[in-house]
């Protein structure tokens, strides 16, 4: 079997280590994964922080939007099950992988209303550049305008990926999804694993896009995408995925 790039999702914390915690990122750095995926939101004072949800409710001991708290206030909020850890900054996560072969897969998120945080794209690039990791990162987003905005900065020469939500896929269709990915400057498209089949993979490649799978949680899902032959896949359970990939 050809090598299939494995991305460890930070949401793997729900399987192995506390989600969003520096502990989870340090443990992931010990694995033979190719990339590590995580999400960036903005605090009230425009600091880049790493947390999946735009709301604090699910993974912390607080409630309300991440954007509603300054970094100092977020530092006083504890992650659930993380032994007193708080939400990490992007810089703190990035430093864990400095000197590592693992590529950073940075997903730029929108707020709870699915609106871009003002200036978040350049701010993410600023942190990556300051930490000397701009060349060791790929950037993804579910919002095509954000992918295009990163492209248009002319500052980022790495891989850009548009993640296509299942509802968007159903609404606009496969051909338009591929056209959207190409139009925003993405070289790859992330597709929910349940939508993938050999015809979709072949069509993506014919469109000049690298097809990837996301949303994998069960062993049966991992086995299926490995058998399909996707270029790259994201798993919430990287240990099991490593074993199955061999």
From TrEMBL:
<dbReference type="GO" id="GO:0008081">
    <property type="term" value="F:phosphoric diester hydrolase activity"/>
</dbReference>
<feature type="domain" description="GP-PDE">
    <location>
        <begin position="5"/>
        <end position="245"/>
    </location>
</feature>
<dbReference type="InterPro" id="IPR030395">
    <property type="entry name" value="GP_PDE_dom"/>
</dbReference>
<protein>
    <submittedName>
        <fullName>Glycerophosphodiester phosphodiesterase</fullName>
    </submittedName>
</protein>
<dbReference type="GO" id="GO:0006629">
    <property type="term" value="P:lipid metabolic process"/>
</dbReference>
<dbReference type="Pfam" id="PF03009">
    <property type="entry name" value="GDPD"/>
</dbReference>
<dbReference type="InterPro" id="IPR017946">
    <property type="entry name" value="PLC-like_Pdiesterase_TIM-brl"/>
</dbReference>
């Amino acid at each position: 079997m050809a090598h299939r790039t494995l991305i460890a999702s930070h949401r793997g914390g729900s399987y192995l280590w506390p989600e969003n915690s520096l502990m989870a990122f340090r443990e992931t750095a010990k694995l033979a994964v190719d990339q590590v995926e995580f999400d960036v939101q903005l605090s009230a004072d425009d600091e880049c922080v790493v947390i999946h949800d735009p709301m604090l409710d699910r993974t912390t001991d607080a409630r309300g939007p991440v954007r509603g708290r300054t970094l100092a206030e977020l530092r006083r909020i504890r992650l659930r099950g993380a032994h007193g850890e708080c939400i990490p900054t992007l810089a703190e996560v990035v430093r864990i992988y400095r000197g590592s072969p693992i590529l950073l897969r940075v997903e730029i998120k929108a707020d709870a209303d699915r609106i871009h945080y003002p200036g978040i794209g350049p701010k993410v690039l600023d942190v990556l550049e300051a930490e000397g990791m701009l060349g060791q990162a790929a950037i993804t987003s579910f919002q095509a305008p954000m992918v295009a905005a990163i492209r248009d900065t002319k500052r980022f020469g790495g891989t850009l990926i548009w993640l296509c939500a299942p509802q968007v896929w159903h609404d606009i269709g496969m051909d338009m999804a591929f056209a959207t990915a190409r139009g925003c400057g993405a070289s790859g498209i992330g597709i929910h694993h349940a939508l993938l089949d050999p015809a979709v993979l072949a069509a993506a490649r014919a469109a000049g896009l690298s097809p990837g799978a996301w949303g994998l949680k069960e062993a049966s899902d991992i086995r299926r995408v490995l058998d399909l032959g996707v270029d790259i896949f994201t798993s919430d359970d990287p240990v099991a995925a490593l074993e199955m990939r061999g």
